[in-house]
């Protein structure tokens, strides 16, 4: 039998190329309970870069009390610099939750940073320990100082399609929050379906509302979770709306395949399979990412939740 | 926290209602290695009917040598008749591989039958032990006699999006095969992505070719497998092309979540989540199907591969 590949059939209404923003080492690992050693993290980032991923978010300068898995952020960035990766062609963004995190990132010599906010009051209070207005007050100096230092700044906006406490999240509320972050100076806004409840009509409606508000699709990225298997359908809807940057996590890292509470990042491999089938250029070597996810699954002691990894892994 | 549900956002370009053709008891179980007792099968069909599924394919009158799991087909149909389900409002089709199977189905008093053919020569020879022309010769009297007996006849066409031995399958070849089955008298043609390799551009191209050949989308059903996570994206593409009947298997029955070779029927629950989010009417009670899949997973001794089941099950 042949090794399966999708039959390539272009859809001329879709973009010719897409940027996959790999978040596995940061967003994936921060949700994994097994502690991953520094050397493995450095090798993971190196492998992902080598597989052709155009952006690899490396870690987070969050306080170690909140995310013990990423307590070695400074050491990891130093190691990536020593390996020649930090000054390489592939940006390696780091998350900076506040000015203290930004100070650490600046000292480490990173070129791309990301801030993280919530579209809903409840999640802002629970995750950031701040109300909606306070979170902007915290983010504003981070974005301003990062831009002044010449860095690329991405803003994550979470709970854009539903909130586990508030339920439905109005589209207008998300557009207002997102445009405020862009007005603050963020270069890119990543809209997160943090609990994975969004479906295609909702994606189209949200992106239409952003367009009507004057936001170009090139300023947006979509961050889908596959908790309810909707991530790829949602990706196609977003591409139809002109979005060309999509977040994904190698092997679906960060989502436990057995737990009810699986956060379920979209797996990079599942996304690449879709885009390969559509003839949409990504520059990513699917087999290389599958190899990396299988290798990392060994360190995590469990199989990948990605269907493509499970189907293709040796 | 609230029990998660998708926020309902209609897409006016999509159909208002969709028929889910439940194939779990037949296509799902025939790929499960754990033998399921007759009483459990009967309860499964009853539960699926009670959950609002409009069609539940119950079993196959295939020779027990090929599918030992379904060796009790006649007993199961008799039991469903005794339970009052066979004459109920919900059709319970059975697969009939040949005239001998049709004879058994007619004796059992079923009202809906299905035949199964391949779009590719290699799979026809490997699965049916016949070449392409011979498979039509086998199907023709089955369809003709079933129609003469007043039955509804569905024709499955497998390997429509790729073949594990032949690789790519040309769209024209699928259209020619499918139209031949409709011309034979089949009421409905179910186009199967048996190995799950199809992506959305391919789905659109195939359905466009059927439309150009004169086939109305109402004559078609799509049978997607989620082996590479593409099934729901493909479903949306097919709805955009006017298709309103979709095959699915409760809990993703038939696809082992751990094996490389997972055949990966699209899970009914994942499909219902999508359609609920789009406000597309199905008549299906999602929670009831999730309960049924969880109950059956106990009999199979393993969790469901459906992401929705894993996220929602108690």
Give a written overview of the molecule.
The structure is a homodimer of 314-residue chains. With 314 residues, chain A is of the alpha/beta class. Chain A contains 12 helices and 9 strands. Chain A has helices spanning 24-28, 38-50, 73-82, 99-108, 121-128, 132-148, 171-183, 200-212, 231-240, 268-277, 286-300, 307-312; strands spanning 19-22, 55-56, 59-60, 94-95, 112-118, 152-158, 188-192, 220-223, 245-248. Chain A has a 6-stranded parallel sheet with strand order 3-4-5-6-7-8. In chain A, helix 4 links the parallel strand 4 and strand 5. In chain A, helix 7 crosses helix 8. The longest helix of chain A is centred in the middle third of the chain and has 17 residues, at 132-148. Chain A starts with 18 loop residues before the first strand and ends with a helix. At the A-B interface, helix 8, helix 9, helix 10 and helix 12 of A face helix 8, helix 9, helix 10 and helix 12 of B.
List keywords for this structure.
homodimer, 314 residues, alpha/beta, 6-stranded parallel β-sheet, 3-stranded parallel β-sheet, 12 helices, 9 strands, 41% helix, globular
Outline:
Chain A is an alpha/beta fold and 314 residues long.
Unreliable parts of chain A: none
Q: What kind of oligomer do you see?
A: homodimer
**Average pLDDT figure of chain A:** 94
Count of helical segments of chain A?
A: 12
Residue share in β-strands of chain A:
5-15%
User: What does the largest sheet of chain A look like?
Assistant: 6 strands, parallel
**Total number of β-strand segments of chain A?**
9
Percentage of helical residues of chain A?
40-55%
Give the SSE order of chain A as H and E letters.
EHHEEHEHEHHEHEHEHEHHH
Using CB atoms under 8 Å apart, which protein chain pair has the greatest interface? Answer: A-B, 59 and 59 residues
User: What Rg of chain A, in angstroms, do the CA atoms define?
Assistant: 18 Å
Order of neighbouring strands in the sheet with most strands of chain A: 3-4-5-6-7-8
Roughly how many Å apart are the termini of chain A?
Answer: 14 Å
Class based on secondary structure composition and strand pairing of chain A = alpha/beta
- Shape estimate of chain A: globular
């Amino acid at each position: 039998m042949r090794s399966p590949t999708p039959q390539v059939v272009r859809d001329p209404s879709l973009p010719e190329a897409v940027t996959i923003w790999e978040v596995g080492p940061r967003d994936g690992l921060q949700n994994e309970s097994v502690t991953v050693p520094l050397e493995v993290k450095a090798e993971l980032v190196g492998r992902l870069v080598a597989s052709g991923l155009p952006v690899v978010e490396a870690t987070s300068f969050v306080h170690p009390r909140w995310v013990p898995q990423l307590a070695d952020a400074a050491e990891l960035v130093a190691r990536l610099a020593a390996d020649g990766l930090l000054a390489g062609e592939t940006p390696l963004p780091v998350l900076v939750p506040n000015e203290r995190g930004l100070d650490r990132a600046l000292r480490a010599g990173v070129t791309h940073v990301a801030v993280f906010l919530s579209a809903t009051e409840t999640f802002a209070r629970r995750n950031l320990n701040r109300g909606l207005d306070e979170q902007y007050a915290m983010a504003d100096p981070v974005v301003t100082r990062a831009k002044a230092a010449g860095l690329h700044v991405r803003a994550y906006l979470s709970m854009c399609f539903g909130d586990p406490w508030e339920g439905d999240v109005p589209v207008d509320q998300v557009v207002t929050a997102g445009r405020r972050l862009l007005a603050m100076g963020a270069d890119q806004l990543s809209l997160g379906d943090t609990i994975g409840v969004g479906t295609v009509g909702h994606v189209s409606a949200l992106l239409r509302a952003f367009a009507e508000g004057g936001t170009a699709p090139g300023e947006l990225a979509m961050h889908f979770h596959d908790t309810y298997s909707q991530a790829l359908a949602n990706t196609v809807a977003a591409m139809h709306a002109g979005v060309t940057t999509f977040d994904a996590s190698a092997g679906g890292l960060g989502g436990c395949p057995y737990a009810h509470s699986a956060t379920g990042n979209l797996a990079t491999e599942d996304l690449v399979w879709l885009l390969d089938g559509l003839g949409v250029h990504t520059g990513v070597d699917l087999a290389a990412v599958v190899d990396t996810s299988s290798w990392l699954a060994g360190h995590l002691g469990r199989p990948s939740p990605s269907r493509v990894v499970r189907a293709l892994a040796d």
